[in-house]
Design a protein that fits this description.
Layout: E1 6-9, E2 35-38, E3 42-48, H1 51-56, E4 63-66, H2 74-81, E5 85-89, H3 91-103, E6 109-112, E7 114-115, H4 119-130, E8 133-135, E9 138-139, E10 147-153, E11 156-162, H5 177-185, E12 188-191, H6 200-212, E13 216-220, H7 224-229, H8 231-237, E14 243-247, H9 248-257, H10 265-273, E15 285-290, E16 293-299, E17 302-306, H11 322-334, H12 340-354
Parallel strand pairs: 1-17, 2-6, 2-12, 3-10, 4-11, 6-8, 7-9, 12-13, 13-14, 14-15
Antiparallel strand pairs: 3-5, 10-11, 15-16, 16-17
Helix pairs in contact: 3-11, 9-10, 11-12
Length: about 375
Amino acid sequence: MSENCDVRRVRTERTRHDSVGGEDHVMGGHVEGILFGLGNPLLDIMAVVTEEFLKKYGLKPNDAIIATDRHKDLFKEMVAQFNVEYVPGGASLNSIRIAQWLIGVPNATTYIGCINKDEFGTVLESKVKAEGVQGAFQYDHTEPTGTCAVCLTGQNRSLVAYLGAAKHLKADHLKIPENRRFMESAHYFYMSSFPLTVSPASVLDVAKFASDNDRMLAYNLSAPFLCREYHSAMMSIMPYVDILFGNEDEAKVFSEVEHWDAKDLREIALMIARLPKASGKRGRMVICTQGANPTLVIKEGVISEYPVIPIRKEDIVDTNGAGDAFVGGFLSQLVQGGSIEDCIRAANYAANYIIQQSGCQIPDKPNFSPESVGF
């Protein structure tokens, strides 16, 4: 590790800190549409199913796969046979929903993605709207709305994802005057790497817009396979990224693809933070989660460690949405002028809550304040 870096372990003292966004106020009087997100929207269809149902579609009790032709009737059969629950999903949408939930002001967030105007699309759009998120969806009629079947058997959870209409997002949708106004209203932008698989031009458009207009862009490595298979596209976005989220597995794969001679996670995170930026107005912050181990934050060459909220193994229901929730919690305080400590407290709160739910399900109101979550 570089001798010039400084590692700080955050203790429980509460002191005054500067806001992450460089603004020491609560959204500066600007609320509506302050946070803009783009991603691959999916409707999670959750149900307790039978072992016979899993066998029929060749599913393992605890697994995650992409739907094939074999699964084309699975979603409708779930709805017909079982007591299903619908929950909006997709990595970026989950984070935006969590941020909206914690901000608590209607229409503080805007989200763009592609769906079909079919039954599932109507359900997804209505639920997103009910949660206070402004949806600016593109509609595609060549494929059904993207869905993710969540097949529950006992403590097991088998996921079958079908991108569907989400694959058809076009950069031209961002040029529609109303959608451009959404972008112009936003001060903060967030995207995961998953849209690189369907519309890299849309991701690059948003990234460049944020940089050209001195807005803050948060971005997520999202998955090891994306760091490997879509690395070139990811690197085209990196110069515009102000805040980068990732976990230890993603960071290590990123380092391998870059052919860095670095094994220590702190050193890798520092190297990512030092990658070239299009704008010299602010450095890149890197936030790396490590499961139950402390979260690493690299800011201006300084490494800080923030502990997570302890949780008993028996209280963990589903870890799949924890990363999305962490990001959403962080963003909720970022847009309100919060310090890094406030952002991490909200991130920990959201991740801790969601990890105890099945899927990214949220109640009407959170029970959170920065003072309520310690380190």
